[in-house]
Amino acid sequence: MNPATGPTRVRPLGGVAAGLALVLIAVLVGVAGQRLTSVETPGAVPAGGAVAETGHTTTVAVVAEGMRFHPAQITVPRGDRLVIELTNRDDRRHDLVLATGARTPLLSRGGTARVDAGIIGGPLAGWCSMPGHRQSGMTLSVSTTDAPAAGHDDHAADPAPGTAARIDPMADPGPAFTARDATAPTIPPGRVHKVELRAREVVREVAPGVRQKMWTFNGTVPGPVLRGRVGDTFEVTLVNEGSMDHGVDFHAGALAPDAVMRPIDPGQRLTYRFTATKAGIWMYHCSTMPMLHHIGNGMYGAVIIDPPDLTPVDREYVLVQSELYLGPDGEPGDLAKMQAERPDAVVFNGYVAQYDHRPLTARAGERVRVWVLDAGPNRDSAFHIVGAQFDTLYREGQWQLRPSDPGGAQVLDLAPAAGGFVETVFPEPGRYPFVSHVMVDAERGAHGVFEVGPGK
Fold this sequence. Notes:
Elements: E1 8-10, H1 18-32, E2 38-41, E3 57-65, E4 68-70, E5 73-76, E6 81-88, E7 97-98, E8 112-119, E9 124-127, E10 139-144, E11 192-207, E12 210-217, E13 226-229, E14 233-240, E15 249-250, H2 257-260, E16 269-275, E17 280-285, H3 291-296, E18 300-306, E19 315-324, H4 335-340, E20 345-348, H5 354-357, E21 360-363, E22 367-376, E23 381-385, E24 392-395, E25 398-401, E26 412-414, E27 419-425, E28 430-436, H6 439-442, E29 447-453
Parallel strand pairs: 1-3, 2-8, 3-6, 5-10, 11-14, 13-18, 19-22, 21-29
Antiparallel strand pairs: 3-4, 6-8, 7-9, 9-10, 11-12, 14-16, 15-17, 17-18, 19-20, 22-27, 23-26, 23-28, 24-25, 24-27, 28-29
């Protein structure tokens, strides 16, 4: 009981994911064990204008971490006084500024402060004032139990039916999320590889809380990674299980496309053969017009044809970069956005920033090869691993750098439909981010992490 304001209400975290609740509990426990300076800044004016006061105070613990506030939405009874206890768990400095004028000081990692938001009579917006942080999505919204939130940009929230979803590239997909296995497949036995691709239209999650009806090969985006050697023959059977015509174009084969790459109607199947005569990582994709729409909505994949002198490595991964152009929730991508080159996200292996949350692994001293294909349909790629240097670079069928060369490379640059691979040896344990160094695309979701453990 607060003698001045009456009983204090602590808002439950019932609407927050279990993982986030555990984080908040851990943060509060951690803060309790530290000797930290707490600065309290009173609110300047009642939020939402004149309102009958309840005499109660709602106190909410908010954590700044990963360029986001957690929770990012707060709901309090109308007329309550709101006190926010902010703790910074990020390596960057952050503050919280409210539209009323109330604010915390800038907090370094581990710092904490309280801000009195005043009596809450309606929606109230908050944000971090550091340059670029608000624009990057570091916002907070306050609402009352009888009014909607204001100023909050919740990319991960479920959108209203018929409206386009929005993506938060830093949102956590939750503990149940499974990332696509990026491990490169081995070459199957024999010299003839029979492949069946089923064109399927499926609703898939492409970012936390964001679903799209993707047009796919075998239900995945990208489609399955195929592999072989120069001289191997691929017998491809396309089965159209969708609701529209689909086809497939394999860049790894050289033959007239007139018949074998023609679109087929739902329920039909088409089989053709080609022999791989050139090495590289090759794109395959739907051949139906408008191809921009079919590729942009998920119908693409990779074929690896090993160079004859390719040597074994300790670990080998495949990353396919592509773009997302969101339509309404649960519906196909927006062709107008594709034509205007306005992607909502740029991703590796079909999901926004999935390898931030489920890192790729290696050990210090191991040789790691990363195959990269830029499926586009529109954006270039500039693959880079922070903290690593490439001693091997193979791009579009040509060796451009080998370990015996005195130089090194920092980026594998690729146009749409181009591919290659790089090799590196991580020098020590740690977390090594990887990105497309087209930085606007990195911040749209084209990033991940290599988690490197101690050497053997």
